[in-house]
Write a structure and sequence with these properties.
This protein is mostly helical and 301 residues long. It is built from 13 helices and 2 strands.
């Protein structure tokens, strides 16, 4: 009887503990369900339908027709090519710049707190404001062309030349996003035990050898995080491209990105189902890119 009473007491305690856990989890589950799960399910529903918004909302099931049309839509491939080019160039450069800035600030440079604030200012500045400032810099008679002319270098029509329009956005975003990742690297660098560097010095290692054999391997998990966040963020380029081109993706589709194409499909052409299909294409590309970089930069098993 005593044993049975103990088992019932334990079962009651176990159930009450589980109930309490579910109660505490309920707000989070509710928020995730309403703002994450339900929108994803609705996007799946939209991608399988053509939606008529004018004259009353009407959903017409078309199956995978929206996805099939992606393969024959030239603008989808242009947007995907532009976005991939942007990701391939921006992510490595902003990561390398962030690491260089972090190592510099961690080296005991004079006035490092002021340098840290100065470097971080672009990150806390509105993206729209930064874009408008750089549009002024990139103007035909703007600051950048004046500096290039003063140095005897060729000038460019940064806003109107399809060959350089996307490069202008790249330069702006590398400059404005690297400081955010710099702070992440700086926090990780400050956690590395100095005894490792002291031991390396006793073995005759120079600064470069310590960086390659100690700093870089220890920062591998942080680099994986920085690359993952960079890939996800760059694949979602929208506001700068929209402001630069006034929503057209010009000149000659040179700044058309996948997210901008989704915006145009939904809000300009009212093709909600087609826009949802493009969004799922983007999600697949992001997942594949993240898995690939995890293969090379993720933590070793």
């Amino acid at each position: 009887m005593v044993q049975l009473r103990k088992q019932r007491t334990f079962a009651g305690w176990y159930l009450s503990e589980n109930l309490a856990g579910y109660i505490f989890m309920a707000p989070t589950i509710l928020v995730l369900g309403v703002f994450v799960v339900l929108p994803i399910l609705f996007a799946v529903y939209l991608s399988l339908h053509k939606v008529r918004l004018l004259g009353g909302i009407e959903y017409r099931f078309v199956g995978i027709e929206n996805f099939a049309n992606l393969g024959t839509d030239e603008r989808v491939w242009i947007a995907l090519r532009n976005t991939l080019e942007y990701v391939i160039i921006v992510v490595p450069l902003q990561t390398i710049l962030a690491l260089i800035l972090a190592v510099t600030l961690n080296s005991g440079i004079h006035g490092k707190n002021w340098w840290r604030i100065l470097y971080f200012l672009p990150t806390v500045t509105s993206s729209a404001v930064l874009t408008l400032i750089f549009m002024w810099i990139y103007n035909s008679n703007g600051l950048l062309n004046n500096v290039l002319a003063f140095l005897g270098l060729p000038t460019y029509n940064w806003l109107g030349d399809p060959a350089v329009a996307l490069k202008g956005i790249m330069l702006m975003n590398i400059w404005s996003t690297a400081p955010f990742f710099m702070v992440i690297y700086l926090a990780a660098l400050q956690d590395i035990p100095q005894s490792l560097y002291e031991a390396a010095e006793l073995d005759g290692a120079n600064g470069w050898q310590k960086f390659i054999n100690i700093t870089v391997p220890i920062l591998r998990p942080v680099t994986f995080f920085v690359l993952s966040m960079g890939i996800i963020g760059t694949f979602q380029l929208f506001d700068q491209s929209y402001i630069f081109s006034n929503g057209t993706g010009g000149p000659n589709n040179a700044t058309l990105t996948v997210v901008l194409l989704i915006y145009q499909s939904v809000f300009r052409y009212l093709q909600m189902g087609y826009g949802a299909a493009i969004a799922f294409l983007l999600a697949i590309v992001i997942i594949m890119a993240t898995l690939i970089q995890r293969r090379f930069f993720g933590e070793k098993a």
